[in-house]
Design brief:
Length: 449
Amino acid sequence: MKIFTLGLTLFLMSGCTSYGVIDNEPMTVIRTDDSYSIRSGGGSGWRSGDIALILAFSGGGTRAAALSYGVLEELRDTSVYVDGQRRRLLDETDIISSVSGGSFTAAYFGLYGDRIFEDFEDVFLKRDVQGQLIRGLLNPLEWFRNAGRTEMAVNLYEKQVFHGATFADMKRADSPLILINASDLGYGVRFSFVQDFFNLLCSDISDFPVARAVTASSAVPILFNPVVVRNYQDCKTEKPAWLIAAEKRAVNDPELAQAVAGLNTYFKKDRREYAHFVDGGITDNLGLRAIYEIIEVAGGAKTFVEKKLERKPPHHLVIISVNASTDPEPEMDTSNIQPTLSETINAMSDVQLHRYNVATMELMDKSLQRWARDLAVPGSPVTPYFIRVGFRDIEHREQRQFFNQVPTSFSLTDEQVDKLIVAGRAILRGNPDFQRLVAGLGGGPTAQR
């Protein structure tokens, strides 16, 4: 079932006013290092001085979650030599940025580490999550509640996947920094669930439920209500110095200017009492712009690494983009019958999504090259790697067609999930830039392969 069709059905069913449940606590002073922040959330920063490894998981429902999971398996089973020691490449992962379906995989790995390889398929990937949500919505008892459809999703994800975990639980020494990203519906701001962004709300992220953040990241508008947070004002005596500095740098940088303008909206005391968060894919379907904006708002790669993280530049700067977007052949072109409303809207959305993804990829490729140059010092170059994992990399046409027909849904068959996991592993393993990285680090497959 197409998401638009399902969303329209649920929209027509819902005629009552609903209110967002507020679950973020206020604070009176700015917090960073003692909470789940960009600096402290990922344990010890770069895992080593040799490689900085950043993963970006796209949206796309369970399809995206399974493809990302396959990439994690391949990283687990690939060993390299770092600082003279043989290590799994997975253990060198510093940051995972995710949106929508990819956020389930990212958040679960951030909370539970290697446990993901034991139970994630049963806990999430091979469950009929969408069917459970629909059955709940068809329950007449739910029709008269004012909390909205999203609360049902939050409760389901709490019960089956995250079990009451908060961002305090996410702060583990051996975990990478997990950037769960959502879109601010009111102003189009891309918002990451870390303390650095919660400071803009004068709120403490420590007790905020991970399930609620993941729900926000995957809350497709119309199908779900936004996740609502309160924008408190108690700590806002003045704008932070980093935001003022970013405003000055953004004068001749349209990309940075747009990001800074969005962040400034949280200081509109008379107009921003609440913020409404929906699917992160609306503002960043690849999870890549979150990385770009955080680094650029901080002042660029050199400032981000040396001052924000207080680390030395790595020798290898790696971004692996896991893109689960599909490119199916349109059925409408097989007939002169006029396309339906849902076909038209889905086609329009696909065109905009693919064009935006191309622009994002180009922006990230150029930025990565620039960051590597900025981080390099005489006698110690930084080698950039932009590794792209997507269905377009599958050579066999029939296999590629199979994956392009997998729907954007939270209910896939076991066969689809199994093939997506295998595809994530195979596409990454066969990527020339990934092979170049592994060879450069003197690595190869572990005995688990």
